[in-house]
Write a structure and sequence with these properties.
CATH class of the largest domain: Alpha Beta
Order of helices and strands: EHEHEHEEEHEHEHEHEEHHEHHH
CATH superfamily of the largest domain: Vaccinia Virus protein VP39
Largest sheet: 7 strands, mixed
Number of helices: 12
Shape: elongated
Low-confidence stretches: none
Distance between the termini: 51 Å
Strand order of the largest sheet: 4-3-2-8-9-11-10
Number of strands: 12
Helix content: 40-55%
CATH topology of the largest domain: Rossmann fold
CATH architecture of the largest domain: 3-Layer(aba) Sandwich
Strand content: 15-25%
Radius of gyration: 48 Å
Oligomer: single chain
């Protein structure tokens, strides 16, 4: 197991200490009795992530389902371990206190009565049954954390047939001395971390001889799981920001290229605009001149006395006069041409203004 940087998931760095016994083991096997949660305060998560597998025992159904989901390589068993197979009532505490769940009546009496709980009957088997039924052979280490029920668990094993190399046993609720069970079965106590006692099988005492607390816990870089998650989150965010920065740089480079191209076009547009401007102005001036010079034709009324002229005839003559002077073919063409030229001139003028405004905005954006 690589120890350049270790992430501890356990309550008291038990996983780091245990890894110190198995520095050169890459694919080992563990037994976790009282496994609890697959990640939070887990002694075996570090090993699972490193490629190990094992057997997890958890009587709490909710926690067992979590183990099933997150530990597909492991053997997960939803039972309790006791010195007698059958059925026992376990007190399951809710939420953060789930780790205090226990079969031990003494432990139940010590726990805060205000903590919410429920008493549930669960199936129990012995350690010997557990290992037999699941065809377990070699066990690198076994962790036991059953909140005051350790004696009953350790008593239920066949220590001749099933001998974990290292034992890690929570020792802060020792209502009945279980150390004699281990000493009688040739296990040697090698370390106490303030919460757990560590034992080595006599035939594997070379593991204890190579173990060093300083090298295991102080030597490597050790960080807790929450800090490690925060580091990964920050690294991911840094990658996102770097990607965004590179995108902005690429966009800025493209904008600069666009400005260079626009600067090449501007003189041509100015020349075109100047040429069009002169042409349109001359055309408009000519139209204006023609409009000013055009004089209406005189109406040609004959000498017929007015009292002799009918109203219908007089209106017809006035209509012909108007049509002749204001709606002649030539004048109509000039009027349409004037409007087309004037509209085109205004359109180009507005377009040039909008183009200049957009270009100015683009330059300001690049400068920022």
């Amino acid at each position: 197991m690589s120890r350049a940087k270790l992430v501890t998931h356990s309550q008291n760095r038990e996983d780091i200490i245990l890894s110190g016994f198995f520095k050169n083991v890459n694919r080992g096997f563990y037994a976790d009795i009282g496994a609890n949660h697959p990640t939070e305060d887990s002694v075996t998560r570090l090993f699972y992530d490193a490629g190990w597998r094992g057997i997890n025992v958890e009587p709490n159904t909710r926690l067992f389902k979590s183990l099933e989901k997150n530990r597909p390589r492991d053997i997960n068993v939803n039972v309790g371990i006791s010195d007698k197979p059958g059925e026992l009532e376990i007190r399951e505490y809710e939420g953060w206190y789930a780790g205090l769940s226990t079969f031990s009546k003494e432990m139940q009496a010590q726990n805060d009565p205000s903590i919410k709980f429920r008493d549930v009957k669960v199936k129990t088997i012995t350690l010997k049954q557990l290992f037999e039924e699941n065809k377990v052979k070699d066990i690198n280490f076994m962790k036991v954390d059953v909140e005051g029920y350790e004696y009953n668990v350790l008593k239920s094993n066949d220590w001749v047939k099933y001998r974990p190399q290292i034992l890690c046993i929570e020792a802060n609720h020792n209502f009945k001395d279980w150390s004699t069970i281990l000493s009688e079965n040739r296990y040697i106590k090698v370390f106490f971390d303030g919460l757990n006692e560590y034992y080595v099988a006599e035939e594997h005492k070379n593991l204890a001889e190579r173990f060093s607390y300083v090298d295991s816990v102080i030597g490597p870089v050790v960080i807790d799981a929450e800090t490690n998650d925060n580091i990964h989150s920050l690294e991911h965010r840094n990658e996102q920001l770097t990607s965004e920065l590179n995108s902005y740089k690429s966009e800025n480079l493209q904008l600069k290229r666009d400005i260079i191209e626009l600067k090449k076009v501007i003189p041509l547009l100015k020349q075109l605009f100047k040429s069009l401007d002169g042409s349109f102005r001359r055309r408009i001036e000519k139209l204006n001149e023609r409009k000013k010079k055009k004089q209406p034709d005189e109406v040609n009324f004959d000498d017929t006395p007015m009292d002799k002229v009918s109203a219908t005839s007089l209106l017809k003559k006035i209509q012909l006069y108007d049509m002749s002077n204001f709606y002649s073919n030539n004048y109509e063409k000039d009027r349409i041409t004037y409007r087309v030229v004037s509209s085109t001139y205004n359109f180009i003028s507005n377009s040039m203004f909008s183009l200049g405004k957009a270009l100015l905005g683009l330059i300001r954006k690049v400068k920022r």
